[in-house]
Design goal:
The chain has helices spanning about 10-20, 20-25, 35-55, 60-65, 80-90, 110-120, 125-140, 145-155, 285-320, 345-375, 380-415, 420, 430-435, 445-455, 465-480, 485-510, 515-550, 555-570, 575-585, 590; strands at about 65-70, 75, 160-165, 180-185, 190-200, 210-220, 230-235, 235-240, 245, 250-255, 265-280. It is of the alpha+beta class. The strands form three sheets. It has a five-stranded mixed beta barrel. The chain has a two-stranded antiparallel sheet with strand order 1-2. Strands 8-9 form a two-stranded antiparallel ribbon. α6 packs antiparallel against α7 (about 125-140). The radius of gyration is 24 Å and the shape is globular.
Length: about 600
């Protein structure tokens, strides 16, 4: 089994050469001490930790899984708890959290490589601490000062972890149907009663306490999503001094039996008159929860990248070693019985697809990290507003597109192994199983696509796209001096203009046919993702050509960037052509068939 190796060279290319994080940090208030030396030291240390401590537990978590004991406690796989304690002792949870609560107050983009590396090394393990960030963002943004003082410091330190308790067995994504009740108590708190499903890290033995962020409904609330409130419900109640108190009325009723991510406890959580604390105002819970959900959606996009990277590493190593058949253009390993499969065109197709989607996806999600820094740290209101607007469009694309392509890469990785990939020995079938959930939780691909096209784009009459379209066209204009890049720039301009005209066409169609948006939305989201990755690859090729012109000892690395960009534009970006055709085809062929005609 190929051991995980942190992709430090490409992370440094994206953050330091392509996106120029150092100059970005200079533009942010109170980030004077954030420099390349600090950034590099963080990368090196987290790489060492994830390679040596976290990655070896990945197969263990899959094979052993979690166990719900008779006392209602969940026992995590061997080594998980000890690795988490090392993570906490190393101060990693505090990296990009507020100094007021014991955090290091670094920009959120500095935490991205840490989350990518730990997620690629072992996604199941990384989830235990991963959801805490969303819980902290929600409490810090919408909680009272008393709530912040009580819950933030132990969450920031990692001594406590957080969860997001949204859905129930009968409602799925339609949270307006939820039935969990919240009743006011004499002590000023609330009593929460109901059951939640699919709660990642809902119960475990890795932290002292678990802080659940729970959606529930007050008795006098209006029906639907307008009547949902948000509550903090800790596993253990807290004493006035912040110490752990008595057990709250929240328990794990069952562990879900899942296709993948076996090392993470996905729980049915039962709230039996549990003490909860209202966050903000009543009936604004869904609005507040979007703070958590948007953070989680970007995190899930990162999961797609993690599975792509893991597939790429394993399949490249295997394809170099596996001998099978001779190259059609003549033997490449004449002294051996056969050639390594990496010489065959179809294997190259699979490897280059993984490489293009992985490295392009990394550039895209690390760009959103810069926007997140601006949104949370900039003192320029106009810059914050622009970042917020851009993130609104990019978040559903990052979540949906990168999880779709992450699953594609995981499947291609398995395909490179042939029959050996289908058995557990190599770890690639686990990667496929683990990757599949990314397209489902935090809102399915279809939900993200509707959010993008219906709410973000058409809901603003296309204006939400204007800053992104303007930035792409400006990049094309600035890059005209690179003559080798001009064919790609021409394609980019054409597709960007088509993106805008396509949006108008769908908008006009929706005025006549309300189903037109739903019929086009997933294809529109994928089209958008392929276009944005094309920008990332054109920009990467531009940087690489400049480095080669200046002279470098890393010729192979930069030439690889240029050739992968050429592959992307020639072999993957043309997928937008078929997506365009399916979008303008409308909804007739989808909706004309009657329900009773779905017969077997």
């Amino acid at each position: 089994m190929t051991p995980y190796k942190a992709p430090l060279r490409d992370i440094r290319f994206v953050t330091q050469e392509l996106l120029n994080y150092e100059k970005h940090y200079e533009s942010l208030p109170d980030c004077d001490e954030v420099n390349l030396e600090l950034f590099d030291s963080i990368l090196d240390e987290i790489a060492k930790f994830t390679e040596e401590v976290v990655a070896p537990l990945n197969a263990v978590g899959d094979q052993v899984g979690c166990e719900l004991r008779e006392d209602g406690e969940v026992e995590t796989p061997p080594g998980f708890k000890e690795a988490y304690q090392q993570y906490v002792e190393g101060g990693w949870p505090t990296l990009d959290q507020p100094a007021r609560y014991g955090g290091q107050d670094l920009p959120m983009s500095i935490g991205l490589p840490m989350r990518e590396m730990s997620g690629t090394a072992n996604w199941s393990w990384s989830m235990y601490g991963g959801l805490s960030h969303g819980a902290m963002e929600t409490i810090n943004e919408h909680g009272s000062e008393e709530q912040k003082d009580l819950f933030m410091e132990p969450l920031v330190s990692g001594r406590w972890t957080g969860t997001m308790c949204l859905t129930e067995a009968h409602c799925g994504t339609d949270l307006g149907l939820l039935k969990t009740k919240a009743e006011p108590a004499l002590d000023g708190a609330y009593r929460i009663t109901g059951s939640k499903i699919f709660i990642s890290s809902g119960e475990h033995d890795m932290a002292e306490n678990i802080v659940h962020i729970v959606l529930a409904r007050l008795a006098d609330s209006p029906p639907g999503t307008k009547g949902i409130s948000l509550f903090i419900v800790p596993k253990y109640l807290c004493n006035e001094d912040g110490s752990i108190g008595e057990r709250n009325g929240v328990t794990c009723g069952a562990l879900e039996h899942k296709m993948g991510i076996h090392g993470n406890a996905t729980c049915v959580m039962n709230f039996d008159g549990a003490t909860g604390y209202l966050i903000g105002e009543p009936n604004k819970g869904l609005q507040y929860m979007f703070t958590f959900m948007n953070f989680a959606r970007l995190g899930t996009g990162l999961q797609g990248l993690a599975h792509s990277e893991l597939a790429l590493q394993k399949s490249v190593a295997y394809s170099r070693d596996r001998l099978q058949m001779r190259s059609l253009s003549g033997p490449k390993n004449p002294q051996g019985p056969a050639d390594p499969i990496i010489v065959h065109p179809d294997v190259r197709r699979m490897l280059l697809t993984q490489k293009a989607l992985t490295e392009g996806g990394r550039a895209l999600i690390y760009f959103t990290g810069k926007l997140g820094d601006i949104l949370t740290k900039s003192d320029d209101p106009a810059a914050r507003e622009l970042a917020d607007q851009s993130l609104g469009v990019l978040t559903p694309i990052v979540k949906a597109f990168l999880t779709e392509t992450g699953f594609e890469c995981a499947n291609l990785g398995l395909q490179c192994f042939g029959g050996h990939g289908y058995i557990a020995e190599w770890g690639v079938e686990q990667n496929v199983r683990d990757a599949r959930i990314g397209m489902l939780y935090e809102g399915t691909t279809g939900i993200q696509a509707l959010d993008l096209l219906g709410r973000k784009v058409l809901g603003t009459r296309g204006k939400a796209l204007d800053p992104i379209i303007g930035a792409i066209l400006e990049f094309c204009r600035r890059s005209q001096d690179c003559k080798e890049l001009r064919p790609h720039l021409k394609t980019l301009r054409q597709l960007t203009k088509q993106w805008k005209s396509l949006t108008r066409k769908i908008g006009f169609a929706a005025m006549r046919d309300r189903d037109a948006v739903g019929a086009a939305s997933v294809d529109y989201m994928m089209y958008s993702g392929y276009l944005l990755l094309a920008v990332a690859w054109a920009a990467s090729a531009r940087v690489a050509r400049k480095k080669l012109e200046e002279g470098t000892s890393e010729t192979a690395f930069y030439e690889s960037k240029i050739r992968t960009a050429d592959f992307y534009f020639a072999k993957l970006l043309p997928r937008t052509t078929s997506l365009y055709e399916t979008m303008i085809a409308g909804s007739d062929t989808l909706m004309s068939i009657d329900e009773d005609q779905f017969v077997f």
